[in-house]
Amino acid sequence: MSNIIHVVLTGGVGSRLWPLSRKSYPKQYLSLFKDGSLFEMTIKRNQSLCGQVIVVGNCDNHSLSREVMDNNKIDYIDIVEATPRNTAAAIAFAAFAAQPDDILIVTPSDHVIVGDQAYAEAIKAGIEKANKGYIVTFGIQPSRPETGYGYIEYKDDKVLSFREKPNQDTAEDFIERGNFLWNSGMFCFRADTFLAELQTFEPRVYATAFNAWQHRKDGELDLALSKEIPSISIDYAVMERSKKIRVVATSFQWSDLGSFESMYDYLKQTGHPVDENGNMVIGTEIYTAFVGLRDSILVHTKDAILVLQKEKSQDVKKIYNTLERHQSKLID
Fold first, then answer.
1. Least crowded by CB within 10 Å, which of 106, 178, 264, 277?
2. How far apart, in whole angstroms, are the C-alpha atoms of residue 243 and residue 179?
């Protein structure tokens, strides 16, 4: 019987959650939540569903992952990327580490999911389809016309199209039409099915990733060989081109916590205090008063303070990009 392996992708710096999220300590490791970090919650959520864990990290964050895994006494395969090459290569490395008939459950490490039973049912449905040779994506029932997520257009379990992050009018149209799901960035497939499709559609990604994999040392990939791998997402490399794609429409609550608006909603839901006008403070016990403001967020760290309107949270990335352009140490 094939092994069920949980593949955890830990790349990404959470630029829209600056100044909480930094290159040296990205959002998935922050201890902001009652149940531990997002990374720890992701590992525990899948423990009873999978027999093995592969963590694909990078040279900047793999020690943070190891700390969590060691504290929880969980054995895992540690794959350390020398440089970020996007999700197609990261997932290929995990598939190379598995047996051909192993089923991979691929998840980001920084999402919040509420509803254990509904989640387990969705994973089980995904495994059934993966065993039939399909590449499965998990779609989230949208609760609002969100412009920060990609969408999946579907009928039954067939994917009709993948859509990029829409503008407000298009997002509202998607919700009205009723056959669109948010794209969760979670996948399920046999290792050999994914690798065969990657080799078909992106032979250079496959070949260069395999070459880097063959020359790894103690799980760490060679930098020069890694730089030869084209940087491309699994969406562009496989999902939007393969004829083997199926979707599981899920019923659990989900958030990628990709912005302060989604973090605000989650923290409020789990009991974090807000004032009578919906204002929230994150990161400090210092008495803070808001005058003439509604639905605002104050974020406090030891070297930066951010104040924003909740609905403008997507614009935080602009601050991050400006700091990055000026090579500021505030993003490290």
1. 178
2. 19
Residue 254 to residue 239: CA distance in whole angstroms: 21
Q: Tell whether the torsion through CA atoms of 79, 80, 82 and 85 is positive or negative.
A: positive
**Predicted confidence (pLDDT) per residue in 104-130, tens digit:** 999 999 999 999 999 999 999 999 999
Q: Which single residue is written with the structure tokens 């060989």? A: 225
Compute the radius of gyration of the chain from its Cα atoms: 20
Question: Per-residue pLDDT tens for 277-290?
Answer: 999 999 999 999 99
Q: List, in order, residues 6 or more apart from 143 with CB less than 8 Å away.
A: none
Sorted by sequence, the CB contacts under 8 Å of residue 198 that are 6+ apart come out as 88, 92, 205, 206, 237, 238
Residue 9's nearest CA partner among 111, 78, 106, 118 is 106
Inter-axis angle of helices 62-71 and 38-47, to 10 degrees? Answer: 50
Token pair of 48, please? 């009873």
For tokens 């039939």, the residue is 132
Cα–Cα distance between 208 and 228 in angstroms, integer?
6
12: left (phi over 0), alpha (psi -120 to 50) or beta: left
Q: How far apart (Å, rounded) are the C-alpha atoms in residues 316 and 313?
A: 6
Give, as one character, the DSSP assignment of residue 291: S
Phi, psi of 288 (to 5 degrees): -130, 130
Place of tokens 């003439």: 292
What is the phi-psi region of residue 144: left when phi exceeds 0, alpha when psi lies from -120 to 50, beta otherwise? beta
